[in-house]
Amino acid sequence: MKVGELAKRAGVTAETVRHYTREGLLQPRRDPENGYQLYGSDSLNRLRFIQRARTRVKLMSCVWREEERVAYPAD
Q1: What residues does the HTH merR-type domain cover (predicted)?
Q2: Residue 9 belongs to what domain range?
Q3: Domain containing 37 — which CATH number?
């Protein structure tokens, strides 16, 4: 699948897919006929994993901030 299709199926933007590709987290193959980057189901699974991990990190950050607020209230 091309960048746009992968992005749509994963619920992210095409720029997000390109970013993770540049960072080496996604590794597409090139279509020899037209040079398009093509992604397989492994890329979709990895992208979904990354999104779940990011969500969990954000959640944990909120929990830690709340714990600090309760443990060390402002005067």
Answers
A1: 1-54
A2: 3-71
A3: 1.10.1660.10
Amino acid at 24: G
pLDDT for the residue 49? 95
Determine if residue 11 is left, alpha or beta; phi over 0 gives left, psi from -120 to 50 gives alpha, anything else beta. left
Strands 29-30 and 37-38: antiparallel
How many domains, the chain? 1
Please, are residues 20 and 47 in contact by the beta-carbon 8 Å criterion?
yes
Q: What is the C-alpha to C-alpha distance for residues 46 and 63, in angstroms, rounded to an integer?
A: 26
Let me know: does 46 contact 9? Beta carbons within 8 Å: no
